[in-house]
Amino acid sequence: MKRSSTPRSRRLGDRIMEALIYASGGVVIVTILAVVYYLTHESKYAYERKFDYGYRVALQPVSGQYEKDLSLDPYATLVTANKEGLDGLDEKEETVPMPTLEELSGGATFGTGTPLSGDLAKVDPSKLYRDDWRAQKPANVGQRFLVFGFATPEYKSDKMAIAWAPDASFNSELAPFDLHLRLVRAPSSVTVQPIDIDLKRQPEGRMELPSYVATSDEARTEGYVFALEATPTSSTAAAVSGGIFRSEWDPTGSYPKFGFVPLLMGTFLITLLAILFASPFAIATAVYLSESAPSRVREWVKPVIELLASVPTVVLGYFGLMLVAPFLQNTLAKAVGMDSGRALLTTSLIMAVLLIPTITSVAEDALRAVPQSMRDGGEALGLTLKERLRKIVLPAAKGGLTAAILLGMARAIGETMIVWILGGGAPLLPTFHGVKDTVGNLMKPVTAAPDTVAREMGNVDFQGVHYGHLFLLGLTLFVLTLVINIVGYRLGRRNAWQS
Questions:
Q1: Residue 417 has what pLDDT?
Q2: 3-state secondary structure of 360
Q3: CB 138 within 8 A of CB 81
Q4: Structural domain contains residue 211
Q5: What pLDDT digit, counting tens, does each position of 57-94 carry?
Q6: pLDDT exceeds 90 at position 419
Q7: 351 and 441 co-located in one domain
Q8: Residue 206's closest CA among 68, 103, 18, 341?
Q9: Which domain holds residue 402?
Q10: 138-159: b or e for each residue (b if 16 or more CB lie within 10 Å)?
């Protein structure tokens, strides 16, 4: 009975173990699917984005003194659709009406204003304001702003100029609209050619016009009437998807920008440099432990390396902040103009320390997986240890070594705390205008995708557009790291000597 029960107990144990393995695999798959679903579901709020634009329009003298920066011109009219605007009248418009001739007397010779309506037939001359702040609209909804312009009796020239410029921080190239400034109506007393200015091709400029002088407040609306028209050019989904490929990330500005490029570029640069710093040391250590280290050394070194992998990343981050960053700043500040130790170079060095245990452990496993018979065959042919490594062991383990590097890359791509503490928090787009400029990129602050999500998630409106873009960025990171891990796993299972 005892003999027969042992095989049964073993079979039962094998079945339990097999069931646990399948259950673990199922849990992993369900977890991955759940994460993908949640990230995708929350990313949809990014596609509820409404888009903004803003221009300032003013009348000026053709020559002489005039304000070139329209944002400093107190009589320029701002027509804008942004997150601070509301359709209809609000305090921003109500408190600043269109200037009267008396208000302009002695201070300015031109005036502009807007009726808060895009339909000239519905304009109420008694309700004119200097600016028009409207709510944002989806990419498939256009808008039209009207701007009245006139000169005061103090202006004596027969020529004047209309000037236009984008509002501060607004880039017309980022708007999913065709933006045009058109002449809707000219004064009956002048003759002027039709005006239609493409604001994307000519975002700012001046154009001469025959002068129109308003002799009374009622005549202010009988002069020039211009229209800023925003015509849709794409769907909201296409506009949002195109926006994430832009090179600007500024989600809290007056005209928010959600370009992923600088964040992913920061992630790429940190990962690339960390891999370049860590891989030679890690693979050399793996080769030493696998091929030539005495067993006693291996028994001590391998646990120490694996213990290093368990050090919290926040500890590594503060180690870099307190020791490495000041050292680099003191030694490199004068040579390369490093303003702060919190920079790309510092972040990459500490990230390399984090990656060394991972790459070393996986690389050593790959090297030890090479059959001993291949080493013995090389030795029988008279090859030295160096020759066996170069001609037999390393080529045979190249799949596993590549997998080790890829797994290190995946680890670096998802790292948050080190970049948060040491990066400096500024998006970086590197420039390469010479050796000094290229090296100077290492000394600039940097931010990456993971730390951006962690830093900004606590300060966004729940289920808002910014919230949705952070989840979309998280989804991008998850897919990227998942693909790299899968490729690394497959390469790790591939044995070069069996292919």
A1: 92
A2: helix
A3: no
A4: yes
A5: 999 999 888 889 999 988 899 999 988 888 888 888 88
A6: yes
A7: yes
A8: 68
A9: 260-498
A10: bbbeebbbbbbbbbbeebeeee
